[in-house]
Amino acid sequence: MNEYEVTVHASASPCPRQEELAWRIAEVAADPVAVSEEVADMVVNRVIDNAAVAVASLTRSPVVTARDQALAHPAAPGRRGAAVVGLEAGRRVSPEWAAWANGTAVRELDYHDTYLAAEYAHPGDNIPPLVAVAQHLGRGGADLVGAIATGYEIQVDLATGICLHEHRIDHVAHLGPSVAAGLGTLLGAPVEVTYQAIGQALHTTTATRQSRKGAISSWKAFAPAYAGKAAIEAFDRALRGEGAPAPIYEGEDGVLARLLDGPQARYHVSLPGPGEPKEAILRTYTKQHSAEYQAQALIDLARALRPQLPDTSRITSVVIHTGHHTHHVIGTGAKDPQKMDPRASRETLDHSIAYIFAVALQDGRWHHVDSYTPERAARPDTVALWHRIATVEDPEWTARYHDPDPDRRAFGGRVEIALKDGSTVTGELAVADAHPAGAHPFVRADYIAKFQTLADGVVSAREQDRFLSLVQRLPRLRPEEVADLTVAADLLGLPTGRPGVF
Hints:
It is a single chain. This protein has 20 helices and ten strands. It folds into two domains: 2-283, 2-methylcitrate dehydratase PrpD; 293-429, CATH 3.30.1330.120. By secondary structure, it is α+β, with helices and mostly antiparallel strands. The protein has a four-stranded mixed sheet with strand order 8-7-9-10. A hairpin with an 8-residue loop joins β2 and β3. The radius of gyration is 22 Å and the shape is globular.
């Protein structure tokens, strides 16, 4: 990996274009390095994972809205178009709208893969827009696998080197550029074209983190889909010869100077050098439970502690010692009263570790629907326990979160539970069971089982088998087979929502 220092340059002494971060990213996208078998296998896993969580969300309001909007934008006459998850493969829409609908379905349950470093990321968000364009333009499986490897590489590298949330900028600001880079690989585009698309995509997808603060709304599901859609539109303009604000990162009114660390900003971003494989997907991890990633290990810990606490009414307090991010994003350090409100939205409860730990401790399990129902959230004994739970930042757990050694990196915490009789129950867990360093790391069989579980009652066994057979041959698929890389909800009548503008 080559490490690059990224700083602000005044307009009077501009950064040489070849030294701009956007240009260097575009060079990585244009490098035709082979994809290893290990990376290709993980790409297949994550396409299965995305399909699993997408089919489980097809009747939820944001997904219905996004699908309705997509169906109002059919493919242009004479163009192939792209598939919308849940519908039969022959139903095609314009690719940017397929990316919108499918990206929303993938993100709605907050149940797919993650990467945590200086910034947060759900790099599986790269997949829907890249699949949509591959279907629309008739690209084969090998091209698509290479594009997905690039998308993951760039988003992970940006999330490793540039923190956004410190400045209350939403993490999808790294997704627009990564999708644009993936499209550059998919289409074999010149560096200049991808560079312009990256600049446009970043410029149009920077937003504040209010979408994940306070009363969290359905926009949380739409945000990454919007970034993917915007990146496709940006690439279309770049292919037609249009330019972007530049230098988008380093300019004196660019992202670093005005949205991040200011005129004195100094970041270090590592990217693969020429001929170096794009393997960042191997540093990412998926979710066993439908909750914010930093809750995964604590859900597993609650389940493990459950046999010691059959009567949770005996609990007087629970203190979760954890890292900075967990405490301030989903813990009581966020200072969001909504995170303690039984009437809160599902999106808010998904970002409340006090609620999540209480329910997991009482139920000994976590379910993507049952654990979030209004009735479950309002149960009096749950509310009582929930309000006895607090988080504190522990410097040791913060340090482990950022540890450069992957074998020591941790996203969990230590829990101290005080009981009415004066005794305590304690436990700690560094990483979730499904994490690559966890007790039961996810392998292909687990991804398939997750898909089959979430598709039950939605997708017939025949359609499940068709999709699983197809996707596991992804690196070898012909363009006409990539066109069928979707899942039809053939056991479900898909609802439509309220009318809008389109």
